[in-house]
Specification:
CATH superfamily of the largest domain: 5'-nuclease
Distance between the termini: 85 Å
Strand order of the largest sheet: 4-9-8-5-6-7
Number of domains: 2
Largest sheet: 6 strands, parallel
Helix content: 25-40%
Oligomer: single chain
Structural class: alpha/beta
Order of helices and strands: EHHEEHEEHHEHHEHHEHE
């Protein structure tokens, strides 16, 4: 008599992938060349369908480690965005920014000579930057680039993961498109779509509903501000960095204010 066959345990992802980056199937299809380059450089990338691991891209056993010179060039490329868009916006006022009284305790207002204190955020934190903060950085508005520089450097080095919505990316591309600088459009598109440093989030139905609820709680938020705030909250970002007066004083989420006073 044959013994009753025992059910086989389901295959579980190896512990080697617990800290691996992960992407969905559709994102993997769109970004395959980039993901292959990253795997060739030594990264392990988990591919998920409906939030469940289904495959992985891994480096070959004899693959040399990532080229440190290439990595440094990538970091410098991202840091080099500071001031790159000065000709696309009025650098003194890309968006009017006037602080209002009664700032919540967790809002850090910025003095002209003040720089961001990196120790405020733990390694591995997600940091959401809205379109107004990114525009202030790339046109170096009133020294904001100096303040945000260490934050961008931490994202470039992989210390934190930057989070931005497609609405933020639209705001960034708006300036160079308006002045016909297609080279800068491509530069920004490539920099902020780089999954090694940035998580780009597109609004969906759940995001839209969250944004509506936020506007009901804080009517001073416009549609864009509500989407930016909903993106930060739903992505699990530790903080939202903004140059938008209404967002800088929201009580719904921790904020680093880039308002210049």
């Amino acid at each position: 008599m044959n013994p009753t066959p025992q059910p086989q345990p389901k295959c579980q992802p190896s512990s080697a992938f617990e800290m691996a980056d992960s992407v969905g199937v559709e994102a993997a299809r769109r970004r395959l060349p980039e993901l292959l380059d990253r795997a060739a450089g030594g990264e392990r990338i988990l591919i998920k369908r409906h939030h469940k691991p289904v495959a992985a891209l891994v480096p070959l056993a004899d693959q040399p480690p990532a080229d440190p010179i290439r990595r440094q060039r990538q970091i410098q490329s991202l840091l080099g965005l500071q001031g790159s868009g000065r000709h696309c916006w009025n650098r003194d006022s890309p968006r009017p920014a006037r602080p209002v009284p009664a700032t919540p305790a967790y809002v850090q207002s910025v003095q002209r000579d003040q720089a961001f204190a990196p120790h405020l955020l733990r390694r591995g934190s997600k940091v959401a930057l809205d379109g107004s903060a990114l525009v202030a950085y790339i046109c170096d508005a009133k020294g904001t680039g100096k303040y945000l520089g260490p934050l961008i450097e931490g994202i470039a080095q992989g210390y934190w993961l930057g989070v931005l919505s497609t609405v933020s990316l639209m705001r960034v591309l708006e300036g160079p498109l308006a002045c016909g600088d297609e080279a800068l459009v491509q530069r920004y598109s490539q920099a902020f779509a780089d999954g090694r440093h940035w998580q780009l989030i597109s609004p969906d139905a759940a995001m839209a509903a969250a944004a509506v609820r936020l506007r009901r709680q804080e009517p001073q938020l416009d549609e864009i501000g509500a989407i930016e705030l909903a993106t930060a909250i739903q992505s699990g970002a530790a903080v939202l960095v903004t140059d938008h007066p209404a967002l800088a004083h929201t009580g719904q989420h921790p904020v680093l204010s880039a308002l210049r006073i």
